[in-house]
Amino acid sequence: MAAITAPVSARKHYLNIDYSWRSWLLTVDHKRIAILYLLSITLFFFVGGFFATLLRLELVTPQGDVVQAETYNKLFTMHGVTMIFFFLIPSIPAVLGNFLLPLMIGARDLAFPRLNLLSWYLFMLGALSAVAAMAAGGVDTGWTFYPPYSTRSSNSQVVLTGLGAFIAGFSSILTGLNFIVTIHTMRAPGLTWFRLPLFVWAHYATSLIMLLGTPVIAITIALAGIERLLRIGIFDPALGGDPVLFQHLFWFYSHPAVYIMILPGMGVISEIIPCFARRRIFGYRFIAFSSFAIAIIGFLAWGHHLFVSGQSVYASMTFSAITYLVAIPSAIKTFNWTATLYKGSIAYRTPLWYALWFIGLFVIGGLTGLFVAALPVDVHVHDTYFVVAHFHYIMVGGQVMAYLAALHFWWPKFSGRMYPEGLAKFAAFTIFIGFNLTFFPQFILGYLGMPRRYYTYAPEFQVLNVLSTAGASILAFGFILPMVYFVWSLRYGRKADPNPWEATGLEWQTSSPPTTHNFEQTPVVTHGPYAYSPQEPHDYLPQGVARV
Amino acid sequence: MWGFPLFPDQASTVAPQVDALYFVLIGLSAVFTLLVVGLLVYFGVKYRRGARADRSRPVSHNTRFELVLLTVPTVLALAVYAWAAILYFNMQRAPANALEFTATGKQWMWKLQHPTGQREINELHIPVGRPIKLTMISQDVIHSFYIPAFRIKQDVLPGRYSTLWFQATKPGEYHLFCTEYCGTEHSEMIGRVVVMEPAQYEAWLGGAEVAQAPAQGAGSAASAGEQQFQQLGCASCHRLEGGGAGPALAGIFGQEVRLQDGQSVTADESYIRESILNPNAKIVEGYQPVMPSFQGQVSEEQILELINYIRSLGTTAGPFEPEETTEPEGTTEPEETTEPAITATPE
Ligand code: HEM
Ligand SMILES: [Cu+2]
Rounded to the nearest whole angstrom, what is the distance from the C-alpha of residue B176 to the centroid of ligand 2? Predict the structure, then answer.
């Protein structure tokens, strides 16, 4: 069947159509905006990573001898704030979602291109505000900003940092809104709901959380700022407030937000596994619906962060039960991805390795989620390194692996070039080894009782901390490699075909890189995604054909 | 350096129960991880490109299979949930005969007081084999009281009491940590718990080895409270025999108190604290709002002593205490123990 292709030649595409600064900073092309996000969040990833390196260095010895207590507290706060608000939340949605959603549904752009540009500016404004706070001395409250510490005692840049997160939140809300409207209104002819790629379903569910959850965190941060500046009692009991109220409000957003940090990754894995297994994905509808189940039940589980906060016993028991229910859709997805390999014809390319890392590490992160959901076990491990390990397995082992998988998979589409396969595989293995060595010992540390946010600790915890820091150096080296070879590939990489992986999605049926308008003609979709046939490796059925 | 632990001390009655749950979770996780990873490896090798394998008629959905995937984890998860919830519920209920200690958290230290009045900072000496109940409050920000060897933790909030109970099973020294980030010296807000044989504990209480002498002479926490009660002038209105400008306080602890507005309230720790700091918030039926606020004049620790005093004037079971108890009532005799007599000596 004739895919819509264009010859790889000196043709004009979204990157080379105009080189001026203006054309980038005022662009309304979703693909260029995705590149703006890519550049900015890569920067923040390395800033956050730099803080992490210092944290791990400090923890090599039990005494606090690399940095002072106060510096350490600022480092983990700024590490957390940077990684969560300025890297992880925008990672897959803002970079890959922006770039791919319109292409995957055969649209020319997002529904509101100017709003999309505004989202990026808001994101940058928020980030600059946080950077200004760091330059002005930093902040030491932890990324959770719990009052009354944050509103009373801390004498650091709480308000400016909060303002940064507040503004960046609007970027998230607008992106979510834009995605939802786009998916509803701009699908190509024939692209029914159940023909949508699972990446799109995952982004739809993510957008719902962004749209409904983010305003709550914005209000919460604003209230904390008001209490701090005007001494109006909202959370501080000395002023008549309630500190646990903050925790409820905070986690009402931030718990669903952890699904903003994993659902898009699940969408990525659902694209990559079928492509490299050359098989139709197993259980398409179950995977699609499980994204929604996660998003919806996720909104009801926030109280599992408050098991030792003094909330009532019955509330804790209820939240624990709901938390167990959230685990089930995740288990379904995991089994379905695994089953997709059955009777496949598996090609081990870099994106697939990252997808496999994702599954393995997500399984560990998810199962340890059941430990912290089990009330008595959580009483013991809450706010210890067990939790630090658990959330890094989900956030780094899950979403960051998926992000790297996605960058490799769609790099040819982004850049028109191939990355160097050998080096990329080497980096993937380095990252996997480094990651596990860094974070696995932390589960043991946590069960032993080492609290988190400690810059000095009891001597018997040292060996495991040294292992963790050794792992972190391997991991840091691993993360630098893709930076280097992606940049290298822009000049020296092999030129990419429109569809180098022989994938079925619409995004592969336009040139690499695409023109500003995405498609020469609007595609017509005749069937669902993932029509791969494992028996004859070169036979696959693209989702769309040119309108005749 | 290589003699490092992989598992924490197990030194309280709940520790083995929590660990049992932990090991079952590890077992279940291992099964699931091996299942998923095993299948990934098996499929991954068998169906790698170029390998000869039967790839005919691949299935892409199977509702029966999905339903099995849905039910098996659900049933297992709910079973673990139920077990955990029951254990947790029991962990929250302090036995009625528990020794009542108090703790105050402040940046960055733990202040503790024994029922007998002794005070300690960042150290807690307790007898083995007796349930101990802590009533805790913070003087500034949120802290969290954590003894890993006992598998217990509870946030310590400003403006609100929280409680915690445990029963140590093994003499020795254990870590006491703060686990709610509370500012610059959060990681140094640590202490140690010294668990002693009852006889040793009695000796320790006797003063021989008390590092921190009781602040206001000897006597119990309640008698320290009685002194506060006199000094602050509470006694001029709250006469023991009644008939003062304020209600008599004997026997009210844990009782329902009728208020002016027709409602009633349980006279627990929080109510007494509120009455001291903000007396006009709840006026007892039949009295005038004449009591002055002691806000700013009494510290959280003094309030706890006052509460102890009022509790000592007569008490009934608090809201969380079970009606019946399996422990011998209020005994101060050392219980029979199968432990070797002395495994650790207090320094
Ligand atoms: C790249 C390797 C990384 C290392 C070595 C690392 C290390 C650490 C360390 C040592 C802490 C402090 C733990 C504590 O004392 O509580 C920490 C906290 C944290 N990390 Fe990472 N981290 C890494 C990557 C990431 C990434 C990629 C993210 C998110 C995308 C992330 C999110 C967080 C968050 C949210 C916290 C909590 C901060 C807080 O306590 O306020 N980390 N990390
Ligand atoms: Cu503390």
Answer: 11
